[in-house]
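Render this sequence as a predicted structure.
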Amino acid sequence: MTPTLVRQHLPRTGAVPRVAPRARARDWSEIQERMLVPLYEAVHERLDVGPTTRLLGLGCGSGLALLLAASRGAAVTGVDTCADRLALARERLLPDEQRAPRARGDHRIVHGPPAQAARTDAYTVVTAFEPIGCLAGDAERLGDLLAEAVPLAGRGAAVVLTGWGPPERCATASVLRVATEPAEPPRGGTGAWRPPDRDDLERVAARAGLRPDGSGRVACPFGYADADSAVRGLKSTGLFDPAVTATDQAQVDKELAEALHPYRRQDGTVWMPNVFRYLVARVP
């Protein structure tokens, strides 16, 4: 599940979902991305992110977490491979200097792998706010990002990993499980459903050579104005791309709306309680 929920990698080489990338990026920015704001703020507060912080955001999406860190005075760099989301991040963090001058000129948005975000002075904080813990292979993909990102951080730098909480405390997990079944890859393959494990984050940190230094849990309810907004927001994660490819957009919309039905309230809004976990690890 990514930035917030994880973005799904297509299981078949060359398969292209029938989606409108720019519209989906806008839905992510306007509907879905804000759902993890309590997680972003809890991490920033715990690490005392501020004017002395040099922060690298992995999978930064359209940059909301970066914007919150920048508002605390941090120098932020975001990396991602989704050009449409990054275009929105640039609008937020790198406005036209003539129209909106900034006191700081050290915010950067990088389209590509973390290795392209190297700077002369090492990062003091690295964040990976795309939660792992629902798809086979998501921990390995995070490990690949860390292999490139950790060498860019200084000794003692904080590296923050995030994951989904227990399924019984994450209403959205059941919705995603039902909605992705039509296109679920073979059992054991990358992208197949898997239940989260309480030690997911610790194992990723250990493989990256990091030293655990505390953890926490944060309530992040997913709330939407109506069912249509919920469907658009959840699809903007990219998790449903294989289902769209395997069936069609209308079928996926229908099954997703049905899965959301138990979480619709009398006023038409959709409300799904969730808990996310974060781990703070240190570069030795």
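Summary. The longest strand covers residues 153-164. The radius of gyration is 18 Å.
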